[in-house]
Structure formats: C-alpha cells, structure tokens
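Bug report

Summary: structure tokens for Iron-containing redox enzyme family protein differ between web form and batch submission.
Environment: batch mode, default settings.
Steps: 1) Submit the sequence below via batch. 2) Compare with the web form result.

Sequence submitted:
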Amino acid sequence: MNIDKSLLNNPRLQALNIMKGTVPKSAWDRNEIFTKNLRKKLSQHAINNHPAINALNSQKINKETLQEIHLDYRHAIVKVFTDALTMAMTQTRQLEPRLPAGAKLAPRFLLTLNALDEFGFRPELDSSNYYSGNPAFAHYPLYEDVLKELGLSKSAIEQFTPSHLARKLLHFLETSFSDYTSIITLLAVAELQVIIFSPPLRKATEFHSLDVNSGYYFVHGISTDHDTAAADDDHEEDLWSALHQACTETDYNRLEATALEYMNLWNEFWNEQLSRINSKAAYNKTNKTTALA
C-alpha cells in the first residue's frame, strides 16, 4: 500500500481534521463556543493570581516546606495523571455508536501525543530509526527524582500523610473515570493548573540548587518557554478539541460545573500550601527573634 507521506506530517492537525469530520459543523462550532466561554471563566478564576505564586517565586521557602508541597502535589495529581489520561483514551469508545464507526480513533490518537510525552518518548528517531524514548524519562519517575533531590527518603515519601485537599482532588478526578467528557474536561483544567504553577515551582526548587534545566521541570510549562521542552499548552488544546467532538448541548451545564468545582478545589489546595508556607515563615521568624533576645 502506497501512502502519501504528506498525510503523515503534522499528526495533531491530521487528527483534528478527522475528528471534525465525524460531527456536523454546527455541533462542533457550538461546542467550541461553549469551551471558549468556559475557558474565559477559568482564565478569570482567582487561582490565576494566587498569592502562592508570588510566595514560590520569592525563593524564600525553606526546603522542608518545599518537600511537603511536593509530596502533597504528588498525591493530588502527579501519580494519577497518566491513569486519567489512559482512562480517557479507553473511554473514547463512548463516542460510538452515536458518532460514526471509528470516531473514537482520532481523539485516541490525539491523546496519545500527550501520553507519548508523559511516558518518556521523544519526537525523534533513535539510532536504529525506531521510536526514541525511555520510561525512565516518563514524567512520574522524573517527579520522583525531584523528591530524591529534595532530600526525601523512600520511607519519608511512603509515610507522608496527604492533606485533605490533596485527597479530595485525587478522589474528584478518579470519580470521573467512567465518563469520557468528564475526564477530558478535568484533564484540561489540570493542564491549566500545571501551566500556572510549574514556573513558580521550578523557581522555588532551583533556589535549593536543583537542576531545572533537565528532568521534571524542564518538561512542564508552555511550548513558547524557550527555557524548557514543555508542551502543556498544546496538550490542553488537544483536550478541549476532544471535547468539541464529544460533548452535546445537554452536557454543557454539567461540564461547566465540574470544571469550576475542580478549579475551586485546586484554589483551596494552594490556599493550604500558602498556609503551610506562612506558618513555617512565622515559626522561623519567631525563632530568630527568640535567639536575638
């Protein structure tokens, strides 16, 4: 079988065009207006200007506090992210038979582009002209490397008790696993949260002499950041595009409420981390004052 090689270029656009062909243009356009309005609300959410951002950027957070923040964040999203992503890929099956046979494949293909990054593949050929990658460079193991570099032992990681908000965030995402539109909506919100907080977290860890020019923080952020190899904005766009194909007008109210509730939980999570930062800062200040007395 001869294949026009040009059809293999720009896989993201190829998938998008096929997805658009599975639904009426009027439905796609309606769904795009819905997500545009939802994304506007998310962009105006208080979390975008959360005071924890400045606190992390200040580079005044002690290592113990940074360890606790990273452990809580690990429980809330890092260890479950690829579980949610692969569940979304599986649940594309819910598109059929409402949409034409095979309609599930293009969004599954699109989500795979995210999964390839998450699992440690690289967009290049290896020395044998095969796929390039290594699971040791998957994002979850890279995050575990950050924990080790922060001085956390295996037992300290295992014995850490997550905050109630980290547990709520995990539970909220896991309970979406049975519904395709819910998973991709929450994953899009999660990517947005990652885009907001990865740069300040990178700066806070760099202050403690961690190498942020490789590893986890090098692959998190936005594609236009030339100091990283990140693509979270591309992955967020892919998730919204998947929703343009998948949802119907009857889903709008439910999905908007779900997205905003999840973002509210993230805002509360960062409130918790800010309290952690401030309480440690106040403790240190008190100790210094006592020592000077």
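Above is the batch result. After comparison, the two runs are identical; trailing whitespace caused the diff. The two ends are 84 Å apart (CA to CA). The CA atoms of residues 76 and 171 lie 9 Å apart.
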